[in-house]
Amino acid sequence: MTQQTPPFSSLPLKKDGPRGNAWGLYGPTDELGMLNRLTPQTTLSATKEIVHGIRICTDWALDQPKVPGFGRAKFEHTIQHKEPRSVNDDTVMFNTQSSSQWDGFRHFGYQDHKVFFNGCKQEDMHNSNRIGTHVWVENGGVVGRGVLLDYKGWAESQGLKPAVLDTTEITVQELDAIAAAQGVTFQPGDILFVHSGFVKALEALEGGDAKNYAANPPPKAIGVKSGEETMKWIWEKQFAAVAGDMLAFEALPFQSNTHWLHEWLLAGWGMPIGELFDLEKLATECRRLNKWSFFFSSVPLKVPGGVASPPNGVAIL
Q: How far apart are the C-alpha atoms of 159 and 56, rounded to whole Å?
């Protein structure tokens, strides 16, 4: 049975908790948040999106970007030859938030209240596995109907040239205009994808330019506009998760102190945020087929107490 979504005006649900929280919507000990919207029914419905059988990876390579942002460690890959046999092992070391990633509920809390989703505290991050990304995996991953809004393609059709490596805000009005132009109708439990062209632009930076861009945290980057209007739009669309090819999904630096998407979505609602997804091929195929919805499957790494994870995502059109 689908959980009834209360009106946005009813937030916060836990009245003595932080602004905008939806704590308790799926019970006081819930660890899935809005992923509860992914049900057997939504999975079965999503399979109807498979029409052409075209499979598209949505992960950027793990060794990207060339220069990780926010002081994060670079990707390392070591191959061990088990000589004299013709056998190899390999070891991979990386920060789960350097390349394509799902931000989990342990990643970002309410900065002033110092709490995470459903009231978890910093000590819970060290003394338990509560609200870790392994819970998503144990419940089947992030699997359902994906919908792509191609901001980059729409902007070009409007004669616009948004600066993706600057603080360019994508508004609710623009998202609605894109959906209308594409003929998109949203359904409860959808997984939203926004294509901005950021990953392609970042990938094109060479040498000193790449280092300079990463050297000033937080860098300026395109993203969805922070604010109450955006929060209300996301809430009323009843998405299970949101993702994009942007650095933080929302514009950087953060443009609101009261309606950060990271606070409200991760700590407040338990809604995964996908960042730095490689959506170039997906956008190209969606445009070619004039089909903007698809079956999407993502099974993160099963790390007990995981903070974030590569998505291991595939869209099937």
A: 28
Of 91, 52, 84, whose CA–CA distance to 282 is shortest? 52
* Long-range Cβ pairs for the range 287-292 (8 Å, 24+): 287/150, 287/153, 289/52, 289/54, 289/317, 291/51, 291/52, 291/317, 292/147, 292/148, 292/149, 292/150, 292/182, 292/183, 292/184
CA separation for the pair 275, 244 (Å, rounded): 5
Q: Which residues contact 44 (CB under 8 A, 6 or more apart)?
A: none
Query: In whole angstroms, what is the distance from residue 256 CA to residue 14 CA?
Result: 22
Give the CA-trace dihedral at 276, 256, 210, 157, to 10 degrees: 60
Burial of 80 (0-12, 13-18, 19+ CB in 10 A): exposed
Q: List, for residues 131-163, the tens digit of each pLDDT value.
A: 999 999 999 999 999 999 999 999 999 999 999
pLDDT score, position 175: 98
Strand 223-224 and strand 169-170: pairing?
Answer: parallel
Could you give the C-alpha distances from 50 to 26, 32, 231, 241, 309, in angstroms and in order?
A: 30, 26, 30, 20, 26
Q: pTM for the whole thing?
A: 0.96
Count of helices and strands (H, E) across the chain:
10, 13
**What 3-state class would DSSP assign to 115?**
strand
Q: Which residues of the chain have pLDDT under 70?
A: 1-2
Enter the tokens of residue 64: 């990207």
Tokens of 131: 């609200």
